Amino acid sequence: MSTFLSVFVTVISLGTIFGCLALLIWCSRDKMGMEEGAPTGHTFDGISELNNPLPKWWSYLFIFMVVFALFYLALYPGLGNFKGLLGWQSSNQNVRSLEEYHAASADAREQGKLVQYEREMVKADEVFGAKFRELAYEPDGQTYRAIADIAMDENATKVGQRLFLQNCAQCHGSDARGGRGFPNLTDADWLYGGTPEQIKTTLLHGRQGAMPAWEASLGEDGVREVASYVLSLSGRKVDAVEAQKGQARFAVCAACHGMDAKGNHAMGAPNLTDGIWLYGGSRAAVEDSIRNGRNGVMPAWKDILGEDKVHLLASYVYSLNNVK
């Protein structure tokens, strides 16, 4: 933060602490000049106020908390840009990419820095890493168990489900049914293939789908005609003349979707004949996809979760529509 803001935070924090201490000292002094326990002459609703001091236990506790606060602010960051005498920080700061994060993490672990997040990750790996490996590997500890076999293991799929809820549910939903622009993982309609190996590859390395915009090539009439043809492929009622013209223009789409429009797993091109739509199946949505194109990105999880966790996660995703 800026120097001004740092000074402002420091002054406010210390001013509040010492202000409370000053108020406590002021209230502890007898300003009445009267004997302790004598009536002050102030009554309300039949109750007379006596000249009694603050409770000693309360005063001592308050002083202890003031001292504790000062020690805490000296040891840990809390006063503007002051980093604290211990050098503690909650996480690696100012990282802007996964590469920078890994470099900062390695540096923190090598130098034994007090980075709370890194220490918790190390502890978590010590406690849970062995369990992940036990579930993911064969008894020899060298070979991964078949994903299809893990999908039949109730304990392993529960672990995979937790990983899914923590990392994938933000896009695909807690029920894995997806949403507009995010695939439904329960319907067996796969953009890049639904075999165990294909699912794991998708999770490890991510996917980047890109459909070009065709408005400049097709024109507005061409967009409408191709949309009519595409909608007709899944049994929708459309203008037959427009659909026929759109079929002739569909050649530009067939390079990815195939002449039969059933898609291509190698390119992530969806099947246009099954009535399942990633970005919506209304005429307006289909025309918008053709006119402006679509771009979808799924992040790679290998460097975030590690292959052991990805293997278990892949088994859970595979189980969603292969294990009943």
From TrEMBL:
Pfam families: Cytochrome_CBB3, FixP_N. C-type cytochrome. Part of the cbb3-type cytochrome c oxidase complex. This is Cbb3-type cytochrome c oxidase subunit. Heme c 2 binds at M211, C253, C256, H257. Its cofactor is heme c. One of its GO terms (cellular component) is plasma membrane. Signal peptide: none annotated. Belongs to the CcoP / FixP family. SUPFAM superfamilies: Cytochrome c. The lineage of its organism: Bacteria, Pseudomonadati, Pseudomonadota, Gammaproteobacteria, Aeromonadales. Pathway: Energy metabolism; oxidative phosphorylation. The chain crosses the membrane at residues 7-26, 57-76.
